[in-house]
Amino acid sequence: MGILEVSNVNKRFGGLQALGDVNLDIAEGTVHAIIGPNGAGKSTLLNVLVGKLIPDTGTVMFNGQSVLGRKPYEINQLGISRVFQTPEIFGDLTVIENMLIPCFAKRDGAFRMHALKSIASEKGIIEKAEHMLSDVDMTNKRGMTASSLSRGDKRRLEMAMCLVQEPKLLLLDEPTAGMARADTNNTIELLNQIHERRDITMVIIEHDMHVVFSLAKRITVLAQGSPLVEDTPENIKGHPKVKEAYLGEAAA
Amino acid sequence: MDAIILQLLNGLDKGSAYALIALGLTLIFGTLGVVNFAHGAMFMIGAFCAVTMQKILGISTITLDPEKLDFLGKPLQIKTPIVESLFGKGLGDSIINWSVPLSILLAIPVMLVLGYIMERGLIKHFYKRPHADQILVTFGLAIVLQEIVKYFYGANPIPTAAPDMFRGSIDFGVLIGFAENAIIYPAWRLVYFLFSMAIVGAVFAFLRFTTFGMVVRAGMADRETVGLLGINIDKRFTIMFGIAAAVAGLAGVMYAPINSPNYHMGMDFLVLSFVVVVVGGMGSLPGAVLAGFLLGILESFASMNEVKSVIPGIDQIIIYLVAIIILLTRPRGLMGRKGVMEE
Amino acid sequence: MLGLSKKDTTFLLVVIFLTLATPILLQPFPEGSAMAQFNAGYPDLMQRFAIYGIFAIGFNILFGLTGYLSFGHAAFLGVGSYSVVWMYKLLSYNVLPGLVLAVITSALFALFIGYISLRRSGIYFSILTLAFAQMSFNLAYSVLTPLTNGETGLQVYTDDPQILMDAASPNSPHFFGILMIESTKVNIGGWQFTFNNGYYFCAIIAIIVFYLSLRIFRSPFGTMLRAIKTNQTRMNYTGLNPRPYTLAAFVISGMYAGLAGGLLASMDPLAGAERMQWTASGEVVLMTILGGAGTLMGPVLGAGFIKYFENIFSKINDNILHSWFSALPDGVEDAVVFLVHPFIGKGWSLTLGLLFMMVVIFLPGGLIEGGTRIWNAITGKNRKSNKPGQDGKHHPKPSAHVN
Amino acid sequence: YMNEPKGGSVVFGFNVPQTGPYADEGADELRAYQLAVEHLNGEGDGGMIGTFSSKMLKGNGVLGKKVEFVSGDTQTKSDAARASAKSMIEKDGAIMITGGSSSGVAVAVQGLCQEAGIIFMAGLTHSNDTTGKDKKANGFRHFFNAYMSGAALAPVLAKNYGTDRRAYHLTADYTWGWTQQESIQAATEGVGWETVNNVLTPLATTDFSSYIAPVLNSGADVLILNHYGGNMVNSLTNAVQFGLRDKMVNGKQFEIVVPLYSELMAKGAGPNIKGVFGSTNWSWTLQDEGTKAFVKSFGEKYGFPPSNAAQTCYAQALLYADAAERAGTFDPCGIAESLEGFEFDGLGNGPTLYRKEDHQCFKDVLVMKGKEDPTNEYDALEIVEVTPRAQVEYAPDHPMFAGGDLGKCNSGA
Amino acid sequence: MSQIELIKGGAEIDRPDFSKNANQAATAPAFLSVHDIHAYYGESYIVQGVSFNVHEGEILALLGRNGAGKTSTLRAIAQIGSPQMTSGEVWLDHQALHLMSSHEASRAGLSLVPEDRRIIAGLTVEENIQLAQIAPPIGWSLERIYELFPRLGERRKQEGITLSGGEQQMLAIGRALARDIKVLLLDEPYEGLAPVIVDEIEKTLNIIKEQGITTILVEQNAVRALKLADRAVILESGEVVFDGTADEVLHNEQLRHDYLAI
Ligand SMILES: Nc1ncnc2c1ncn2[C@@H]1O[C@H](COP(=O)(O)OP(=O)(O)OP(=O)(O)O)[C@@H](O)[C@H]1O
Ligand SMILES: Nc1ncnc2c1ncn2[C@@H]1O[C@H](COP(=O)(O)OP(=O)(O)OP(=O)(O)O)[C@@H](O)[C@H]1O
Ligand SMILES: [Mg+2]
Ligand SMILES: [Mg+2]
Q1: Which keywords are on file for this protein (chain A) (predicted)?
Q2: CATH number, residue B205
């Protein structure tokens, strides 16, 4: 039995069937990629997983608990973190402050009023944040205001913010989009390391096949809202339907 | 029954004033996203256009009448309006009599120019600034405009009469089959109602049947991209601002005979018009108009004795109470668009 | 020291010094000189500086940190004042019970209003708070007169119970016998300095609450509040529930407002309904923005600025003008007076309006920003000239939350 | 005592509305005060000093000290008014405070002066409370009050409109409005009128249509507007718009009454006030010597006749100065003593008494009517009757004034 | 700004200077000429004297690492105002773009597809495209755009921002084509697109090229971009470090390693 079980999920937007009978079982400790053509419903599925969208039918169980109807922060507190397709960070705050917030959230829960405690005294938390920053190679940008980072850096920051929470399940929506090749490789390495060290389950949505094939242990191909096939990377590469609907020449 | 219809009329009439003021505000605030605390001042300046017109038409030549004495015992000054000497007494008098409608001719250019100067000289720099800064600068401007008017016209209300034709009241009840004297309504208020309907209709038509509205909305959401598509958004914003100023001014001109204009009348309406716009929903013109009428009607009903005797003081708070209820049940007001000013 | 960084400690010490030395600093001109008109070192105004400073500091905790713009904070000011006067009427002129009650009632009131209003954000939130405050004002002015004494304002009458009063008790507000209205006047050279008990009472409270707000700004809680302002989506997905944070900020700032209202009544035993009107709510918004929202000291400066104009400029009349310029030849004197006349005395609000505009146009970021620029100009810190009012997607935000 | 003048001059504090709706009234009050200061210091033509029955004032200042003044803005808010008064006391060393244009402000500042040990000479305040439930030993009112308005108006109304009338009241929903309504209702019921209804209107109302609309079908034939300032201008204008005055009800011409008039309101309401009855404290059209002298010096200086607010303020300044001369000191307690029970004449209101028990002046009250055919813009109101003082007097413990306590005079020592 | 200085510090030691090629390469008269532009965000100096030429009908790949200043350069060329261009000249077909505002530059035939797509909230797909057809000169018709991207046609009444990431990218490109343009600036157009669609767009770019439209392409997938492009310019820390043909980069190991890390 997997850490995340999606059964019979349907979601319609007006006349459009965005998700149709999606069943998914993600094993604990694996890296699972979801690929598929644009508009296939990948982000929609992710939104269902994090409680932002409530499906019309179906259930989503995480570690035996239903996530449906929970608020996003409750879902995060269960141990699910999410990286967005367009980076969501605290633009007005500095990079290091951006890092501290998830650390506090992890330690203190959804609400805890430390109104008179000084941040400087939170040595352990700061250390943890700094450590993560150096893991993603952003230590030299710690004092910058997050909104003035370049886009690749924003992505990296967001990922670091998620990772520092050591989630049980990490959802990544196109984590390397817009990243330079070198950084993409670094990110792959980083994710691989994290996966090995901390044994985090990851669900990745990605169009960059290089990334997908370097990371994923299993791949689900979504097309027009429904899973087309689910298999190992090797088999997917050769799958004729996938080739035609999605990979095109890239498979070559 | 007649009491209810009477209050309904009152409500519609109040509502049309609210709607008209809110309409101008919502063009700037709901559409351009500028929290314009000077909107009330523009309404006030509109009303003072009527006052000014009356003054201009009243400019007189002075002759001394040595027979009569003034309070200090000096010869009494007799004034003859120049308009009278120019056009003869008959025509001159009717021109003076029609000064309020005539002042529309004054108000439109004045308000357009004022709107233009305001937008180009000031507001332009504030589209991207935080709302708080917009509040501070427009509030400052409102005070300045107000004080300038006060400097020239004093703080006291200045009576401004409607044309004789509309000065009295109409037995409205008889028209719809009630007994005589059951529903008496002032003629000018009916004119005001029709006038606001016309303005609301004209603004709607303009924004609905041209791409102008779409472009401005797009420009609000993302100026930069609209510019990249070759559209001179600045120009359109200026036009929008000018229209809003003109609508506010016209609302003011026609309001002058209903209540004598004074320099702070804008501030009196300011809070209310913001409430109307927000209850209507940010970014929605029909919403603002609907909310204007709704609040006007509810306010009128709340001031009925039958209601007040059940809930004392309800007329003091009705508008705010309704605003709270609506905003709690409908997150974006009556017809608000998503994402406008929610951050 | 005191859980503050070294920089903050220095900052706090400077603030303490400035606050305690206010009676001297605000009295720069000798008595009787032409410029004495501009002295502000008299008890009432100094008290107001401190009290409105507290009000603005509290408001800034909500607005400056979370970005939630409340247009109804005057309601808490009013509630605070009424609480204190009621304690005078029921117990005695000792201000302590009243102030405690003021903070409690305003907290409860803020909890109620905040709980409801915070269901919405942005302008919708502002209008909800405005609506609550205006309802409070309208009711206090009319229907609630038995509780508020309506238009006249709540005050103490000789037939009030005042159960803790005996013959020896002071007949005006005091803190365990220290009379608020009592002052010590010191004459040095041509200067006269007034050291007033009431002012120092307010000043000490102001320093304490300033210290608390400094701690809040530097705390994880403060960072959370700033995070809420920036990106609530990320906040949610980071596992944090923004609502209790904003509500806590709302209640804290409501308590500051209640305390300020209570102090107003502690200095002057009267509570009027106008304190709850939207103009009063608007005033604290203006103070905060004028000084610099989100900065620690800005709102206090803004408060001082507005109160100074209201109290000092409104009192300059033509007579005083003529006496200033009497050295000039007659015609010139009249011309100068004529030119200045619209801006002073009854024109004080015109001047204030103009200054509001100037400040936002030329000093985006408020007075503090202006101060920083001047400081940089002096110390030669700025490398390149700033271009204010320039349109652009990104405005470099003042990232320093000190000053 | 507080702010005892040490040098060659003494400072008066003129606290009037300079911003807000009553700014024009405040400006007129300030003009009157400036004129009073000139006259006290021996400049100008001396105005009413010459006609004042007490001959203590010589035009050489007060007690030999030159009179100087400071002015401040009440904004017609009690908080701002108290702040302004306090700065005059604390910063400028004012020996007395005078002025104001609303009862809320008068009561607030009077309370402050009592606490601070300063004399307060009220300006325009018409609420019964100022010298009733809120009276203070250090506060004095020259202006008339709501009770007096009622007492003066009722007989005139009865004479003109008959005793069989049904009145509908619209009342501003705050303390002054209530006391005024109570007074007028009692007085008109005293002459046989019936009160159909009393509707309270919110202070912030600008459009009274929904309050006026039901009047016509309520069975009432008189509408009484217990409003002041902008409220009154608007409610009267609205009532006329609704054609009330053109209608016949119960077989009688429908009438409107505005118990408290002021010249500025009359001007603001324009032609709508024609034929409407009300009352004032004083009018520049009176023909006694004091009035003539005052109108002459005011008119020559400013180019238009003074309002009744200006007259009361001018009189208050003179009365204070005279009291100081007679007491031989600026000590508030001394001044209070010499004002209490003081009888005088020649200040435009005929023989007047400053009553000891409540510090209220008793004098004739004017019943006014909107003039049908004004000859100039200052001539909107005409005097219908000068109601003699005896008719408007009441006992100090009259129920409408009960509950207060003057307390003891406070000299701030 | 600090990071630029950091990167720069290490970069200058042992690298051959390829930027000299810049002027030698310019044989034909340039169609779009970018000359020594400097641009700032507030006080941070980002574009530090960038110059290059593009010939008519050419595809130029503008490459560089994250934060190298590619986006900023494109935005400066389009005269958006942020970053603020303080000096330098941009000429398009004898028109001085640097003297224009962004909407004038657009009317002169320049079109930018921004990196974050900038679909306008509150407008439908169709309105987003119509918006591009208000100011002259007007390019492709709605039908033609829908033919190229059928998904957009299917969703024409849907609000633009509710489209999937890839659909938004199509809309952004479609919107640019709705204007009659001489130069197309594409900022990472492949990002978020399925490989099949990328193939599709590549074909489209070739069609566009055949019609004589000049293109500047910013792309992280350098190999892919270089295969398509005629020439390449590489930026680093806001300066041009290479200007030459695309093949040169493809075949020069050291170049690729030093500046593109591939
Ligand atoms: N709120 C909405 N209203 C209507 N349609 C929607 C809404 N949100 C998404 N859709 C549609 O649902 C479909 C699935 O969208 P989704 O964002 O899940 O795609 P995706 O697989 O993530 O694609 P991409 O790889 O391009 O990001 C799309 O066709 C999209 O247009
Ligand atoms: N609005 C801004 N304010 C301040 N600095 C900025 C701003 N936008 C970008 N920068 C900085 O300018 C530099 C160049 O950014 P730019 O976005 O042009 O890089 P890029 O080459 O497009 O990178 P990427 O490949 O990540 O998109 C970066 O260091 C970035 O931090
Ligand atoms: Mg997606
Ligand atoms: Mg970029």
Answers
A1: ATP-binding, Nucleotide-binding, Transport
A2: 1.10.3470
